[in-house]
Write a structure and sequence with these properties.
about 170 residues; five-stranded mixed β-barrel
Length: about 170
């Protein structure tokens, strides 16, 4: 005789969307990590960047090909406010002169941002929260729904079996 939780032989147990939601959570976390590490350089510069001055800023415009438009890249020499040797580095932001106030991110291999703004990180951080939070929210909703269904089925089984009868002890 089979008990309520047993699966008859030959029939696979129905798994449901739980494993797929868990996988979606992991993928969402990975994508959120990629977004935060690659799209928030200016935000990190505004919050934690090393202040200094960029001098000798040179910007060049490159033609990307027929109909593809153009791109501009700038570089200059960064000197930190607390001293240290100056070094050449890529420069991002609106460079209006040969010398500009800038904030350095990721040391000598990073980028110096001219006038970084905290609000530029709002979109990437919001996107990361959606990528990581949406699958997690769906997972929580599914687990709550599945538990409620199991609890309701258990109550129905108890009522059918008469296990809710009151015993007066006589």
């Amino acid at each position: 005789m089979s008990k309520g939780g047993d699966v008859p032989r030959g029939q696979p147990e129905e798994v449901g969307p739980g494993p797929w939601l868990a996988l979606a959570c992991l993928v969402g976390l990975l994508l959120a990590y990629l977004v935060l590490t690659n799209l928030t350089g200016e935000l990190r510069a505004a919050l934690w960047g090393e202040p200094g001055t960029v001098t000798g800023v040179d910007c060049r415009t490159y033609d990307n090909g027929t109909g593809a438009g153009s791109s501009t890249s700038c570089s200059g020499t960064f000197t930190a406010d607390d001293g240290g040797p100056p070094f050449d580095i890529p420069v991002a932001g609106r460079v209006g002169s040969q010398s500009a106030r800038a904030w350095l991110v990721d040391g000598t291999s990073g980028v110096a941002y001219v006038s970084p703004a905290v609000w530029t990180g709002v979109f990437p951080v919001g996107l990361a929260l959606v990528l990581a939070g949406l699958p997690a929210a769906l997972m929580v909703a599914y687990v709550r729904h599945a538990r409620a269904q199991r609890a309701g089925a258990a109550r129905e089984a108890e009522v059918r079996n008469g296990s809710d009868a009151v015993c007066d002890g006589s």
